[in-house]
Design goal:
256 residues; alpha/beta; Rossmann fold; 2 domains; 9 helices; 34% helix; globular; disordered C terminus
């Protein structure tokens, strides 16, 4: 029987009369890659904000590794093994690529900042930093300030900072947003490798070629509610999905 690492029960949040997320019950299997799709305003990012603790639900529960985390802070959820990237790049622009990732690795290993201690003494932190730089294809840019990286490189850097926390579940909110077309395959490879290494990935993405390559499962959100859930082929051919998501079009044609 599959192990459920993340679960929501009747999860919802309302902003006045607007039900941004409504009665969402999902079970995320350990080691699987699940993609959440839906039109703009469907509630995808709001759902991520609930799961990661940035928003408090109006209704429902969130369970992580069998424990109710509904009222835990975002920091406590990260400490428990939940990682999250955002639609907008979130890095320290005046620090180098190496320093950005090292700070994340240092935080995860609970190595506090000591003004009179050379960071090179923290061998485990530095080894982890070098490993992550290699994984996100930024080793050659390790000494470059984050503000001088291309947008695509900054997206990789942000992902590297999250990976430095060794998350068991990784929530990726449109990791290729704003990237040049030629940069997308490298990001796909990084995500695929992360998944292959055993990390459970939940992805919000609009690029259907990317979704079909990576996903074990698709979940379709419309108006804050789940309307379809299953393998990529069956979901992409579901008439209700085509009607609600595309007005009866062809799902393969959606690339942005």
């Amino acid at each position: 029987m599959a192990e459920i690492v993340l679960k929501t029960e009747n999860l919802g949040i309302s902003f006045g009369a607007l039900k941004a997320v409504h009665d969402v019950s999902l079970e995320i299997e350990k080691g699987k890659l699940t993609t959440i799709l839906g039109p703009n305003g469907a509630g995808k990012t709001t759902f991520f904000n609930l799961v990661s603790g940035l928003l408090k639900p109006t209704t429902g529960k969130i369970y992580f590794k069998g424990t109710d985390v509904t009222h835990l802070s975002p920091i406590k959820r990260v400490e428990a093994g939940m990682g999250r990237s955002f639609q907008l790049t979130n890095v320290f622009p005046t620090l180098t690529t190496y320093e950005n990732i090292r700070l994340a690795a240092q935080s995860h290993q609970k190595v506090g900042y000591k003004i009179f201690t050379n960071h090179m003494k923290y061998k485990e932190v530095n080894l982890k930093t070098e490993e992550i730089l290699e994984r996100v294809l930024l080793k050659k840019k390790k000494d470059t300030l984050a503000c001088d990286l291309t947008h695509g490189e900054q997206r990789k850097l942000e992902l590297g900072m999250v990976l430095a926390l060794d998350p068991e579940v990784l929530l990726l909110d449109e990791p290729t947003a704003g990237m040049a077309i030629e940069e997308v395959p490298a990001m796909i490879d990084i995500i695929r490798e992360t998944h292959t290494m055993g990390t459970t990935v939940v992805l919000i993405e609009h690029k259907m070629d990317m979704v079909k390559i990576l996903s074990d499962r698709l979940v379709i959100l419309v108006n804050g509610a789940v309307i379809a859930d299953g393998d990529p082929k069956s979901v992409s051919e579901d008439p209700e999905v085509l009607k609600a998501y595309l007005g009866g079009g062809v799902l393969d044609e959606v690339t942005a």
